[in-house]
Amino acid sequence: QVQLVESGGGSVQAGGSLRLSCAASGGTFSQYAVGWFRQAPGKDREFVGAISWSPGTTYWPDSVKDRFDIFRDSAKNTVYLQIDSLKPDDTAVYYCAAGSMLVPSSAPEGYPYWGQGTQVTVSS
User: Fold this and answer.
1) What are phi and psi of 86, to 5 degrees?
2) CB under 8 Å to 71, separation ≥6 — which residues?
3) Tell me, what's the pLDDT at 123?
4) Bridge pairing between strands 10-13 and 118-123
5) What pLDDT does residue 43 have?
6) How far is CA 11 from each of CA 24, 31, 65, 88, 106, rounded to the nearest angstrom?
7) Are 98 and 32 spatial neighbours (Cβ–Cβ below 8 Å)?
8) Three-state DSSP state, 111
9) Per-residue pLDDT tens digits for 75-104
């Protein structure tokens, strides 16, 4: 069973950038799609992007596709979420998740494996 660990969150000013990492242990990302979600206080968990393992196609909701990017480092068994032009509305706990699917799902229910989350706080 794969375990996921996120890192890279922090407090930044609006307009800044962050790169979040999702490292897998106890297994590899091979044959797993990886999704990124975020959850702000009092709100539902929101899909912010995903990447299929093969061929590495990325998927985005319209709300973030111009500012977010996902890429992977197979040698490090790590998937990254790059967030640029951060806004205060991006403040949330960010989670990565993995699931065995050819086309990543935008629904949290599609992913059986989750990391513990990393906090991103954006100040104006």
Assistant:
1) -60, 145
2) 51, 79, 80, 82
3) 97
4) parallel
5) 96
6) 24, 33, 22, 11, 26
7) yes
8) coil
9) 899 999 999 999 999 999 999 999 988 889
Alpha carbon of residue 31 to chain centroid: 17
What stretches in the chain show pLDDT beneath 70? none
Amino acid at 108: P
Q: Compute the distance between CA of residue 82 and CA of residue 69 in angstroms, rounded to an integer.
A: 5
Best CA proximity match to 100, nearest among 4, 10, 35, 15:
35
pLDDT at position 90 is: 97
pLDDT of residue 118: 98
The pLDDT value recorded for residue 49 is 96
Strands 78-83 and 68-73, sheet pairing: antiparallel
Q: Are 15 and 86 in contact (CB under 8 A)?
A: yes
CA distance 75 to 89: 33
